[in-house]
Amino acid sequence: MQIKYPSLPAVYAEAPSLKRVLVLARNFGPAAIVASLAIGAGESVLAVRLGAWAEYSLMWVVPLSALIKSGLLTYLLGRYTVLSGELLSERMAKVPGPKYWSVVFVLVISISTAPFFVSAVAGACGGLLSHLVAFGDPITWSIFVAIVTTSAGTLGSFQYLERAQVMICALLVVGMGTGAILASPSLRDLLMGLLSVGSVPEVPGWAAQDAAFAGRSRLLEVATAFGFVGGSMASYAVYANWTTMHGWGLSKSPDIERIRKIARNSGKPDYLPSDPEQIQLGLRHLLRVKYDVFLGMGVLLLVSWAFMIAGAAILYPNELLPSGYVLLAKQRIIWEQVSPLLVPLYYFSVLLVLSGTLYANPEMYARLTHEFGTILWRSLKKVSYRKFSLCIGAYLLVGSVLLLMTGIRPVRMMDIAALLSMNIGITVLMAIGLWMNLKLPKPYRPSKLTILGTGIGILVVGSAALLSIIHI
In whole angstroms, what is the distance from residue 165 CA to residue 241 CA? Predict the structure, then answer.
């Protein structure tokens, strides 16, 4: 069978221009969900905490994590799927080693940590609601939030979810960007913090005496925050699936099922066209992934910095450290010092982003579990995705409610989730993503710079995982 890439609009072959930028920017969608899932806990909670006790010294953590995960990892997984037309799970099933080990790894880590993600974010959100309404305890409100948002996400559609996350990202960039500017940060200290890569300051005396830091390692705090900035392994693994739902690259071919059958029987994707014109067309299809990933990384970077700057400029001088189930309530001082009228806007923005994260979780875990699960149990293909997603939603709901009832602090839940899914999980997934792309025929392989950057990224995230294991 002769395989050909679907045709593209003429603008894709044109020289860079404002028109082409605007056309390609319309593809922003899958990466918006990934960014929104990350922003929910990593930025609105942990990035602020970093600024609150380390001031500007750890500003390097945000861009490093965003570049490695939201940039390199997302691009690697997306580019392979767009160029090959394969489902990510089917190629991962061929990773050298024990049969299906990588598929089992992704499933076990993702599903086992899922309730921790939901309960941690719901716990932060419930603590804020308890503070706002001044009645009821934080855990009860957290359970209420988990029930409402998880149920809504389970019953919603992917198309509505994607539109909602793009809107949330836009509001966050404008709102948090404005807040960061109004906080009047020290530009000199901010720049010095960006350049101090790898440097971790001592915890100031006032923060060390806070219950949130009692016996807690500063290196664990940094490793957990680094893990959460950018999101979990599950969100990146499912990103490739979302690109196929959009019909990007070879997945839009009318012969895609036959192509995937050929791919399943092939040790490597040597079935791709070797004609120079087809190779160039295939590489042009990557523009959708590049623009989507760039915009998603930009949102993540700007919002993360904005939250961290707010913590450094406002919370640090006032010696306030978000902790317990009131992680977010103390942060109102950031807006109070600018204008008391902005406090309601802050509460609305935080509740919006946390709800958006919780709303997106059922789709992410259902899509991932369904795709990877069918590799192990082919009979799952006979189960309708709708019924399957309801089961996953029920699991997330029951699991998170039980965790919340134990009274475990949200930050402890984040430590566990960051170790397994964000640091260990992403280290393994990055290595697999690089292996897959190097299996492509030579003209389709990533650039040497991308390969080098990925190798460095694997070492960095692996180091964060090691720090988590030692200090958790």
Answer: 17
Task: Write down the pLDDT at residue 6.
Answer: 93
Q: Does the pLDDT of residue 329 top 60, yes or no?
A: no
In a domain, 4, yes or no: no
Nearest-CA neighbor of 354 among 98, 145, 195, 194? 145
Buried b (16+ CB within 10 A) or exposed e, 2-21: ebebbeeeeeeeeeeeeebe
Is 199 a member of any domain?
Answer: yes
244 in a domain, yes or no? yes
Secondary structure, 3-state, the chain: CCCCCCCCCHHHHCCCCHHHHHHHHCCCCHHHHHHHHHHHHHHHHHHHHHHHHHCCCCCCHHHHHHHHHHHHHHHHHHHHHHHHCCCHHHHHCCCCCCCCHHHHHHHHHHHHHHHHHHHHHHHHHHHHHHHHHCCCCHHHHHHHHHHHHHHHHHHCCHHHHHHHHHHHHHHHHHHHHHHHHHCCCCHHHHHHHHHCCCCCCCCCHHHHCCHHHCCCCHHHHHHHHHHHCCCCHHHHHHHHHHHHHCCCHHHHCCCHHHHHHHHHCCCCCCCCCCCHHHHHHHHHHHHHHHHHHHHHHHHHHHHHHHHHHHHHHHHCCCCCCCCHHHCCHHHHHHHHCCCHHHHHHHHHHHHHHHHHHHHHHHHHHHHHHHHHHHHHCHHHHHCCHHHHHHHHHHHHHHHHHHHHHHCCCHHHHHHHHHHHHHHHHHHHHHHHHHHHHHCCCHHHCCCHHHHHHHHHHHHHHHHHHHHHHHHC
Q: Does position 411 have pLDDT exceeding 70, yes or no?
A: no
Q: Are 465 and 419 in contact (CB under 8 A)?
A: yes
Q: What are phi and psi of 219, to 5 degrees?
A: -70, -35
- Note the pLDDT tens digit of each residue in 182-225: 777 888 999 999 999 989 999 888 888 877 677 788 888 888 88
214: Cα separation from own chain's centroid: 29
Answer whether 0.85 is exceeded by the pTM: yes
Residue 255 Cα distances to 5, 48, 286, angstroms: 10, 49, 20
- Phi-psi sector, 3: left (phi>0), alpha (psi -120 to 50), beta: beta
Share of the chain above pLDDT 90, in %: 35
pLDDT at residue 327, rounded to an integer: 47
Does a structural domain hold residue 124? yes
Domains in the chain, number: 1
Which CATH number does the domain housing residue 293 bear? 1.20.1740.10
* Range(s) of the domain holding residue 455: 16-471
